[in-house]
Specification:
The complex is a heterodimer of chains A (about 325) and B (about 300).
Chain A: E1 4-5, H1 6-20, E2 24-28, H2 32-35, H3 38-43, E3 48-50, H4 55-67, E4 71-77, H5 78-81, H6 86-94, E5 100-105, H7 123-128, E6 134-136, H8 141-153, E7 158-161, E8 166-167, E9 183-186, E10 191-195, H9 199-212, E11 217-221, E12 224-226, H10 230-240, E13 243-250, H11 254-266, E14 271-276, H12 286-292, H13 297-310
Chain B: H1 15-22, H2 31-55, H3 60-64, H4 67-77, E1 92-95, H5 101-111, H6 151-165, E2 171-176, H7 183-194, E3 200-206, H8 215-218, H9 224-230, E4 234-239, H10 243-255, E5 261-266, H11 289-299
Parallel strand pairs in B: 1-2, 2-3, 3-5, 4-5
Helix pairs in contact in B: 2-4, 2-5, 2-11, 4-5, 4-10, 6-7
Classes of the chains: A alpha/beta (about 325), B alpha/beta (about 300).
Chain lengths: ~325, ~300
Amino acid sequence: MADIATREVYGRTLVELGGERPDVVVLDADVSPSTMTCYFAEAFPERHFDCGIAEQNMVSIAAGLASAGKVVFVSTFAVFAAPKVYDQVRMNLAQPGHNVKIVATHGGVTVGEDGFSHQAIEDLALMTSVPGLTVVVPADGPETEQVVRAAAQTPGPFYIRLGRPKVPAVHGDGYRFELGRAEVLREGRDVTIIACGLLVAEALKAAESLSAQGVGCRAVNMATIKPLDEAAVEAAARETGAIVVAQEHLEQGGLGGAVAQALARRYPVPVEFISLADCFGTSGPADALLEKYCLTGPHIADAARRALARKRS
Amino acid sequence: MSNSADQESPVAASPASAHANRVGVFHAVSQKGLSTLQETARRVRRHIVQMIGKAGSGHPGGSLSAVEVLVALYFQVMIHRPQEPCWPDRDRFILSKGHAAPALYTVLAEAGYFPTEELYTLRQLGSRLQGHADMTKTPGVEMSAGSVGMGLSFGIGTALAARLDGKDYRTYIMLGDGECDEGQIWEAAMAAAHFKIDNLTAIVDRNDIQLTAHTHQVMSLEPLADKWRAFGWHTMEIDGHDLSAVLSALEEARGVKGKPSVIISHTVKGKGVSFMEHDPGFHGKAPSPEQVEQALREIG
């Protein structure tokens, strides 16, 4: 399957949803040609509202629409869809439980050349800290379509993080996403890599290279970060005894924090983290940035070996 | 009591008959009707002072300034069903200045959303009446509030939903004047005019005082009416304690097409209680038991 950006799939899926459901309304903040809600705007202009560069207003408008029965998709870049509107998400979406889906594009450092101001690396920490908010990071195009559809069918507020670049597909066309359930992409008995987003593909590369060296590596796609599939985390700890968490995000919070908490509570084992260490991003091509911040398959494989070495014999 | 909600059977009324009632509901309020509303406002003030006094904390000043507008809306203007708070065709009232929750709770209770005795559970553990308005707990509260600046945006959402659904319910939003320090208010002011939202009326409770001091000392708002006009709003200024003026302005707003309307409602913070009036100290301070007694004597 050809590489495709998750935001591109989102834009196409929204149009399908719009045709199926008259109650779907879409809001954007002057970035619809980048979030790809422009497709929906073209197909259903009366149900697409560009709120201008005013994200806080947009999120609260979404809440009002949802209070009157609409299923509202709200899109902008992740840096504006999480840090900039935290209070509105907390007050207007999460506490009331309104049926609003924030679909944040341009998550992580792979935004690239625009630099740190546009690279959301803390959004998952922020959004997982909001009570009642479901947080999902799909790995590829096929999963994005499934996640967007699941969000439309599931009442309540969502934060869905997508990316800017094209990414390879790790799923086939027949894939069925289950909200809140981990997906074991590859089995192994020695160590487990738990990843989300575009690092799932990198985790699979790491697992393959480890396997070639005789290390059995389980690879888990943890698209739903909240609520976390703690049973799958515990099973990985019990059955493989060492864990690596990989996310395009700060080490603090997000998937890393959630997995570490689950392990501490249920079955502590050595954990290594593939993530940004207390720093902001920088300008550069996406691939170079993944390498700079050690977010690639070889680095994940190294982390797996470190975790293995820490296992109690 | 000429409560528009009482003019139709909550059970029998279809949306069509409700819409018919929307025309000319309140443009001719009799002197008797006005005195009934004034009497309701007096009862509301008594409850506000007593419930905050009993709670030992709360925001009396900005609750007392808002009373006449709330009474006009809930007992004369809005079409709503206290026994069916989520009736889809109801007019919406959104209290954006969520700290005035005691005033909203009181009109809701007086209108029949819940028993007035419940007002005296305000701010207690387990109460449905939270310190700031909470839509998940209190029947009739449309939006959780307390972090100011969000209500006008939320109201744009309900107004757009009415337009999309071809319904003719109206949205009313009460803002604090201090709240207009928030940038989001002006984001929403721009958006409402841009989207030509004419099924929405904002009311700014212009009591001139915010938490620390008078508004002109904390952050200059004037010329406030000119700001709203410049943002494309049909702008009115009234004495917010004159029920006739409040009703007239609300009716005028309903007739404005193609743009949103705002009523700058000039009020007195702590209205009706001499030692609270114009005093920033009673923005967020409860009266003592002795002060409650004095306040009740003054309100009558």
